[in-house]
Amino acid sequence: MTDEQNKENLVPEESEVQQEVKQTEQDQKVSEETLPTKKFEESKRSHASEGPATSELMEKVISINRITKVTKGGKKLSFSALVVVGDAKGNVGYSLSKASEVANAIRKAMIIAKRNMISVPLKGTTIPHEIIGKCGGSNVLLKPASEGTGVIASGPVRAVCDGAGIHNILTKCHRSNNPINVVKAAFDGLSRLKSAQKS
Fold first, then answer.
1. How far apart are CA 161 and CA 151, in angstroms?
2. What are φ and ψ of residue 68, in 5° steps?
3. Is the pTM of this model over 0.85?
4. Number of other residues whose CB lies within 10 A of the CB of residue 82
5. Which tens digits make up the pLDDT trace of 138-160?
């Protein structure tokens, strides 16, 4: 009788353990099935929120310079990056930023350039009227052109025109060809443009 009683007592214990194991396995399966979908949905949402803002903007690095500062302890190296950012729809910005590494300087310049964008009035695919931009020793002549002319410009001015979405323009750099002053002069001219209705 004692053996039969022991068997009867053991059977329910085993069945309870098996049920608990089955429940834990089912819970694990459900969690494994739901977790990837949640992660996938979260990644889709994050890409959807970040994707369009970054993909629409055109980013161009015009020049990178190495800067050496001589101090009491020795020479300190840093880098400066000149970057132009635009959406090719009339909004364009630039920035000259410095950092201890090239990648950090470029990243910093892009953030500041996106923050300081200006709107350029366009007349079709060109500018409304002729203008001369000035900065330091650089003068940049910006002249409207007919359809099919293209962007007749040097490297820095071409980057600014591409960022602003200007496809037909004639430009000429006078005096200094320093890329920093040339970009600033081009922005000076574009910022003083009047729209086609006002002109």
1. 8
2. -115, 120
3. no
4. 24
5. 999 999 999 999 999 999 999 99
CATH number of 58-191: 3.30.230.10
The HSE-up count of residue 40 (CA atoms within 13 Å, CB side) is: 6
- For each successive 10 residues of the chain (199 residues), what is the average pLDDT? 49 55 58 42 40 67 95 94 94 96 95 95 93 95 95 94 95 94 96 76
Sketch the domain layout of the chain as residue ranges: 1-55, 58-191
Question: Residue 77 phi/psi, 5° resolution?
Answer: -95, 140
Q: Which candidate, 120, 112, 45, places its Cα nearest to that of 88?
A: 120
Q: What is the pLDDT of residues 17-39, one digit of tens each?
A: 566 656 666 655 544 444 444 43
Structure tokens at 151: 């962007």
Starting from the edge strand earliest in sequence, which strands make up the sheet with 138-144, in order? 131-135, 138-144, 169-175, 151-152
Query: Which residues on neighbouring strands pair with residue 170, listed in sequence order?
Result: 143, 152
Task: Say if CB 95 and CB 57 are below 8 A apart.
Answer: no
Contacts (Cβ under 8 Å, ≥6 apart) of 156: 62, 63, 82, 84, 179, 182, 183, 186
